[in-house]
Write a structure and sequence with these properties.
31% helix, globular, 5 helices, two-stranded antiparallel ribbon, Rossmann fold, alpha/beta
Length: 198
């Protein structure tokens, strides 16, 4: 019997969560299912789903106040704000100031025990800070990302509005379920549209 996906396969496909870039790094190669005739990489849906499940299990071990989610990429801002409201996670939507996690003298100083980065490249300052203080890093990585210094890679289209909306919607729903805040999917009232940039 095939293991149940977190959302129906067509929902993943509609959001384009599996569509990578034409550029591929060595690290991301083993997440690629095939290369389309137009040169775009197609990520393996099973592996995406598997990694989201691992991320949820990992995040569920942390109190909401100890989780920091960052997105320099504008397509993730709306999702982060909704996620923060529902889970209590700290979020940084926009420019992350170097030292936010390491320098208590900064106005924007924040403490965290785990970091979730929307894209390993634009969010590299946050990742560098996390490494400096020794906290785990979960990063959404497209086929063009380098994955050094990342503890858990979630392979996905980390640029598309729909893809990011769906990913953060699943993480939010399943974190709340794992923590016992909502009992089941039907108790989670937030719609996917609430997480997706217009």
């Amino acid at each position: 019997m095939e293991e149940q996906l977190l959302v129906p396969q067509d929902q993943y496909l509609k959001a384009g969560i599996h569509i990578g870039t034409k550029f591929r790094t060595k690290y991301m190669e083993h997440f690629i299912y095939k290369i389309r005739p137009d040169g775009l990489s197609v990520l393996n849906l099973q592996k995406i789903d598997e990694r989201i499940k691992i991320a949820v299990k990992l995040l569920a071990k942390y109190e909401p106040k100890d989780v920091l989610v960052v997105s320099r990429r504008e397509n993730g801002w709306k999702a982060l704000k909704v996620m923060s409201k529902l889970t209590g996670f700290k979020v940084f939507a926009g420019r992350y100031f170097p030292g936010t996690l390491t320098n208590p003298a900064l106005d924007k100083y924040a403490e965290a025990k785990i970091l979730v980065a929307t894209d390993a490249w634009p969010d590299r300052n946050a990742i560098a800070d996390a490494i400096r203080i020794g906290i785990p890093v979960i990063a959404l990585c497209d086929t063009n990302n380098q994955a050094n210094n990342i503890d858990l890679v979630i392979p996905c289209n980390n640029k598309g509005k729909k893809s990011l909306g769906l990913l953060f919607w699943i993480l939010t729903r399943d974190y709340l379920k794992a923590r016992g805040i909502v009992k089941n999917d039907s108790e989670f009232k937030e719609k996917l549209e609430d997480f997706t940039e217009e």
